[in-house]
Design the sequence.
């Protein structure tokens, strides 16, 4: 049972903008711990998409952006492309659990 | 380039133990924590713990304490994760992942090792 809650699914047409929320609490995101985002294509290992709330690793398109406010964070994908169809997970640290936590995961479907 | 190469798939009976290896290359093994994350079929990601390859120190998720042991062999740049008293709920793909940014996020992942627990 994850402590970070994401919507199970979001969808959009090619070229549209979609956002994925990640809701935490005062022991994780609300405690000012960083939020990171991963993309997981079917049958593959997760890939780091956003680190430190807003930063993109080298090679990640600028169509992906992250934000954080209070006890929540969001991942936005603009100019949605067919190749963006995947599962997306947020991740942070939880002081109550003294460990790292992942979100429940969101499946993005390109219509 | 950084690579994490894991051992192959395993099939175990309930009550048994499994040990998964993760060989690192392309960087100084002792400079970064190694984390273990698992994913049950059709489910999300679950963090299991980390090991400091430098000191051997570990930190396990509460859920796995008493059942998981993480070790390393610095001479061959390899980390290990052993999980005991397996049940069918432990059927999952197990990943090693290097901890970056003061260990807080995972920029490099192994390819995953499928562990199937079945009688």
Sequence:
């Amino acid at each position: 049972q994850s402590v970070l809650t994401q919507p199970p699914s979001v969808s959009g047409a090619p070229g549209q903008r979609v956002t994925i929320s990640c809701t935490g609490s005062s022991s994780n995101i609300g405690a000012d711990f960083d939020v990171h985002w991963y993309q997981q294509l079917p049958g593959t290992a997760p890939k780091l998409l956003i680190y430190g709330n807003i930063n993109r690793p080298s090679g990640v398109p600028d169509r992906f952006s992250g934000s954080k406010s209070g006890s929540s964070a969001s991942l936005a994908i603009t100019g949605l492309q067919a190749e963006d169809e995947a599962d997306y997970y947020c991740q942070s640290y939880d002081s109550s659990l003294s460990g790292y936590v992942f979100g429940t995961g969101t499946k993005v479907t390109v219509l | 380039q950084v690579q994490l190469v894991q051992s192959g798939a395993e099939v175990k009976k309930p009550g048994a133990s499994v040990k998964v290896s993760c060989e690192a290359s392309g960087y100084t093994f002792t400079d970064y924590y190694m984390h273990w994350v698992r994913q049950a079929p059709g489910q999300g990601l679950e963090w299991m713990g980390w090991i400091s390859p430098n000191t051997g120190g570990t930190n396990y998720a509460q859920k796995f304490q008493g059942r998981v042991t993480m070790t390393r062999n610095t001479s061959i740049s390899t980390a290990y994760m052993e999980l005991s008293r397996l049940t069918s709920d432990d059927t999952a793909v197990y990943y090693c992942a290097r901890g970056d940014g003061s260990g807080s996020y995972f920029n490099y992942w192994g390819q995953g090792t499928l562990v199937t627990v079945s009688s």
Remarks:
- Chain A has a mean pLDDT of 96.
